[in-house]
Amino acid sequence: QVQLVESGGGLVQAGGSLRLSCAASGRTFSIYGMGWFRQAPGKEREFVAANSWRSGNTYYADSVKGRFTVSRDNAKNMVSLQMNSLKPEDTAVYYCAARRGSGNMISRSEYDYWGQGTQVTVSS
């Protein structure tokens, strides 16, 4: 099993920045990659960004490309999401997820472990 704990959410004005972090513990050697998803009220949970721990490749949703950056701290088994130029439409609960296998890194169903989520609110 892998346990994930997110931190860093909060309230920020449009145009501001936030940094989310996700700490992984447990059987971290089994992790192929980690991702971030978000869910706004009344909407489906959607892919935001992902990082393959094996290849180092990163993946982004079109809506956040150029504004968000996903990175890994190898020593700490952590993944971070730096969010810049935030918009009100970025408001959502953000979830960290980890996966054991390769495949489609943007597919929500292919992730095996999930954190509890952290709220990000962007005011206009």
Number of helices: 0
Sum up the overall morphology in one term: globular
| Secondary structure: helix percent | under 10%
End-to-end C-alpha gap: 40 Å
Helix-strand topology string:
EEEEEEEEEEE
Global mean pLDDT? 95
Strand content: over 45%
Outline the biggest β-sheet. 7 strands, mixed
User: Using DSSP, what is the number of strands?
Assistant: 11
- Integer-rounded radius of gyration: 13 Å
Query: For this entry, what is the oligomeric state of its chains?
Result: single chain
Estimated structural class: mainly beta
- Low-confidence parts, pLDDT < 50 over ≥5 residues? none
Descriptive overview:
- With 124 residues, the protein is mainly β.
- Helix content is 0%, strand content 52%.
Task: Please summarize what this structure is.
The chain is about 0% helix and about 50% strand. The chain has about 120 residues and is mainly beta.
